Amino acid sequence: MPWPSRKRDKGAVADKKEPDAKIAKTEEETSDKEEEEKSAKPPAGSSKSGWKNWKKTKESESGGEESKITYCHWLLKSEPESRLEKGVDVKFSVDDLKAQPNQTTCWDGVRNYQARNFLRAMKIGQQAFFYHSNCKEPGIVAIVKIVKEAYPDHTQFDQKDPHYDSTSRKENPKWSMVDVQFVRMTKRFIPLSEIKAHHLAHKADGGPLKDMMLFTRQRLSIQPLTQEQFDFVLSLEEEKPH
DNA sequence: GCCAACGTTGGC
DNA sequence: GCCAACGTTGGC
């Protein structure tokens, strides 16, 4: 089963403006216990990588509540260059996002449990970096915001869709999506190479990007950032290209 | 295009 | 429940 990271180019959002917090999440929690388990922690072998450290951070920041952490910032990967997946082009660049009605799109096609759970944790108004991946110049190009919280990803039921999941039931959909809206371009392109250089430096000196999931959870397409991580990365847009 | 990283699957 | 084989992600 594919679990492509990014959304793909498809039409506008199904509904209109109204930022309905109501539709959010409903039927999950009940039956996907195992999945939540599986995905809510690092894989068995991977001792103390990203998740744990990040969780630790959040806990200490927020007064340490084990299960009630609220995440506030995100990074969303999307592929700006054409690539066929089951005959369908999954390209979706920031320009494609800006071309959508309302500059808004549903973030469909996520087929990884950990990424899905992060999608489900997103709240209206939260900001995310729009990251270009699998391309010539990987890096952050824009800021987007969540305008609709998690609801069932319709592409899981569409046999023609490259992300069709025959094991998902309508009564209990496995996969979710959110709607995101373009906010603004970053003042300059922030390349992965630059973020990584800071990450490496911070591993040595304990700086904010020390545990950034872009590097500790390499393949995760939807990832949370701490306030400190978000602020630090954003501060890079003010600097001279490195 | 190569290939390291890593999530998933299935045999046992 | 272990773990090798496999498939995908995504930087380079």
From TrEMBL:
Which branch of life, at top level? Eukaryota
Q: Annotated region Disordered: where?
A: 1-62
- EVE domain ranges (all copies): 73-235
InterPro entries xref list: 5hmC_binding (IPR052181), EVE_domain (IPR002740), PUA-like_sf (IPR015947), THYN1-like_EVE (IPR047197)
A GO cellular component entry from the record: nucleus
Cellular compartments annotated: Nucleus
Concerning PANTHER family, the annotation shows: THYMOCYTE NUCLEAR PROTEIN 1
Q: What's this chain's function? A: Specifically binds 5-hydroxymethylcytosine (5hmC), suggesting that it acts as a specific reader of 5hmC.
Q: What is this protein called?
A: Thymocyte nuclear protein 1
Question: Which organism is this entry from?
Answer: Piprites chloris (Wing-barred manakin)
> What taxonomic lineage is listed for the species of origin?
Eukaryota, Metazoa, Chordata, Craniata, Vertebrata
Identify the gene encoding this protein. Thyn1
